[in-house]
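Lab channel / #folding
Pinned by the channel admin:
"Please post every new chain as: sequence first, then the structure tokens as a reply. Keep commentary short and put observations after the output so the thread stays searchable."

First post following the new format, from NK:
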Amino acid sequence: MTMSNTGGRRRPPTIHDVAREAGVSRGTVSRVLNGGHYVSPTAQDAVNAAIRKTGYVVNRHARSLITGRSDSVGFLLTEPQERFFEDPNFNVLLRGCTQALAAHDIPLLLMIAGTDDERRRITRYITAGHVDGVLLVSSHSGDPVAQELREAGVPLVACGKPIGLGSKVSYVAADDRDGACDMVRHLLSLGRRRIGVVTGPLDTPGGVDRLAGYKEVLTGAGIAIDDRLIVSGDYTKASGEAGAERLLDRAPDMDAVFVASDLMAQGVLTALHRAGRRVPEDIAVGGFDDSPAAVAASPELTTIRQPWDRISAEMVRVLLARIGGEEAAAVILPTELVKREST
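Reply from TO:
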């Protein structure tokens, strides 16, 4: 830092200090800070070395006045606040996105909008230009947020394909249907034939596609779809427990259950234990996500691994490309069957 003229207090280094240290003009430093266009490699190296030596930190507010950008990104979860703390997937995704953006020196703002009022308030905040783009998580069909942000021209990337918007919105998703197929094939390979399912919310892409995979494999194996073996949940532990109770009541001969999230599968295990059913001896249980809930369960869950690190990195990559003016894009990533004690 540089000494000020008022007492002994040091003032923060400025862009002029960087230019002086690097032996270049202030304009050259400014071009390096804004992407390095029309700057020679030698000058760019000198400026970067001067930034490190002086400890210069970009004044984001001043730069935003020039560029019209906020230099920040929003992480928008359209679920009730308690879901953020209960479901470990959201925390894993948030951490991955934060780390990916940190490599670009871009801060991430967490926004939770679980009610209509919260959605309206946060949508106004975003469209006023307070963030340059949005990473949207858990978008239900009928939720107007994605459509409103798209119409307002806000760069947007969804985690999972937003129902009803198709190619209009960029998204990154695990292959939910293929993952569900792998799990049901695994249960069939164990000799199980009365396989129940606790679905995710059927107004979300994951809920729809995982149920479709379940039906596809059973039909392909010549097993008729029995509606008594299908119940819906909402990705919470409580809904998994309630779903298992309904399945046991409607289909007491069930010998396996595919659960569309690990957190719900924990609830299923609780209900099965209470009913005196042994896992996996009496009923095999398969989950989805390979979240921390899978290894916290007793017994540990066989599950479908979503590549959360790749999902978060791709969401950030696609969003930065959208902010830079590129067209909407879709990325679908493969899943993996992870075998543990519950099957």
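NK: DSSP finds 14 helices and 14 strands in the chain.
TO: also worth noting, The longest strand covers residues 73-77.
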